[in-house]
Structure formats: structure tokens, C-alpha cells
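Project standup — Tuesday

K.O.: blocked on the structure for the chain from last sprint. Re-posting the sequence here as requested.
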Amino acid sequence: MKKWTLLALACCSAVSMADVEVQPYIVNGTSASVDTFPSMASLFIDATDFGGGYSSGSYCGATILDSQHILTAAHCIYGDDTNAQVAQLFTVVVPQLQSDIELPNENIQSVRVKEVYYHSDYKNTTARLLPNDIAILKLESELIPLNSNPENDYVKFADDELYRSALSVFSAVGHGNTQSGVDESNHLLQTSLSYVSQSTCAEAFIGGRDYLTDNQICFTGPISNTTNLRNGTCQGDSGGPVYWYDGNAEVYKQVGVTSFGPSKCGNPLSNATSVFTELTNYKVWIDDVIAGNINSKITKIEITDVKRQSFADSGGLSTVSSSSGGGGGSLPLWSVFALGFIGLFRKQQR
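H.V.: unblocked you, prediction finished:
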């Protein structure tokens, strides 16, 4: 059985990887509505208030825990190099974004991050399959709710793992291309997924037998006759949700945070196309962060305008640079981000 190298799924990631082919976004996606998935949020770079520009596309997905706390993947925001600092300092959260082109041209809500929390047991390496790949962003101000009852905007969690069944219905949601290298839509997309057992998933990835844990949940999808790819997530979807439809409650409940997949997104030969951090195992940690019970300087990053301006004044925004890669070759994801950053980072028109 073939085993596949991994692709962490962020456009903006501090993960250093070798032998990784770059592929974008949701595979075999169809249009999704924020009315159906109101807890969906997107992460953008916006440095316009500090002499920089903004990203015209989101670099990671996220979901809304409450009016001031956002759930995403740790590898979207982790690190201490220049690119990671750009993400930490200049990320804005945009809730319920139907289309990427709405920002910044429309009157779209965006809120800066003031604190970043990542799990103390997170390992920032794909060789270990990104264990505990989960982070929470605390916002500078509260989000304005989409619904008259704000709690309808917030993530709903499953009480147990009974959804781990081939009969369950799952949907991964994110912004991006419908397949590799084809930018057909700026709209929010969804794709249907099916549960894959831990043993099957472990066989799909190099190191899976040693490092895949019960804190991760895996999925696959049918092969499209149009793309010849399986449904799945890919680069740019990191941090976003996979929802399980609870038929009894008639509600979508988030069961995972998008983490990684095979190096070829939607690989029809792989038994697993998407791996997520499973949320039932992190409820206590999430509650502790929201309650303000975690104050470790190791796993908590505080962000201020003073830090942002100091970084900009030092020339940090101008040091984000691209790295070339041959066609079909490998490219670390920070290089991908740098290329995207230069291609998408725009000066605000005054």
C-alpha cells in the first residue's frame, strides 16, 4: 500500500516541509451559504493601518466560539520567524464571509487579534503529523452577530464521538479553488466527506502507524468523474471546520479543525484525503482559554499596536520574500505563503 507525504493545509504556515507538492483549497467543492454555516470565519492579513497592504484572499479558515474567541489550526499562526510574525501581528478575522472579493471592497466586518493561544502539546512538524494542531484567537473587540440570537453564530459541538460511522454525513467548508491550479470561484465552498477508521488512515500516511493519534479524525470522499479526484480539503483550508449533521437535533456540529492531507490533494489513490484535529478531546482546553485560565507565556502571545508599529518600522513587512520552486517539485508552505503574499498583498488605495 502506498503511503503519502503530507500537505499542511494553510497558505500561511510556519511548518517547514520537504517533498510536498502544492495544491489549493477545497477539492470538488460546491457553493455553500453562511446562513447554513454561520460559525464559519476567515483569516486575512491586513497591515494597511501600519503602512502595509492587505491580502485579497484568506490564508486560513476558522470558526466562531463566541463574540471574542475564534478557533483555528495552530500551524496557521505558530512560529517566530518573519512570516509567522506577520500572521500573528496583522491577522484580521472576517466572520461569515460569503465571497473573498467582498473584502475590502464591501462594508465587511473585520476584527484584529489581540491574543493567540495554541495547545501546549502542539508539535509543529508534519513528520509527527501535527499533533494537537489547534489554536484560539482572542479578538480586540466583539463581533457583530449575523443572527438576532448571537449564539446561533457560535460553534455547536458534539457531546460524544458516536458520529464516527460510515453512515454519518460530514461537510468540510472553506474558501478557494475547485481543484489544483483552477480558480473558478471566490465563494465559500463545501464538500461531502465520509469517515475513515484510524487504522485505515494510519496506513495512508508516512509515519501514520507511529504518530496518528485518537485526537485526530480522518475522512475520504467519492471520486469525481469531472476532476478524477476524491472530495477533500487542501492548502488554504487549514483551521476551517468539518461539520457533522446531527439529524436528531437538525443542526450542523463541528467535529474537527482542518489540519493536513496527502501531498496531492484529493489523491484518488489515497485512502484518506483529509485529517482534522478532533474537538471532543479539547473541550476542557477550549473552555479554559475562554475563561482566561491559561496564562503561560509559552503558549500565549499578546499582540498590541505598539508591537505592530515596531515591526513595521523595522522593515519587517518588506522582508517577506518569495522562493521559487520547479514545476512538480517540492516547496515549503512558507514559500507558498511568501509567493501568495507578494501576489495578493495590495496597497490600500487612498
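K.O.: great, moving the ticket to review. The chain has a mean pLDDT of 83. Helices lie at 82-90, 198-204, 208-211, 283-290, 305-313, 333-344.
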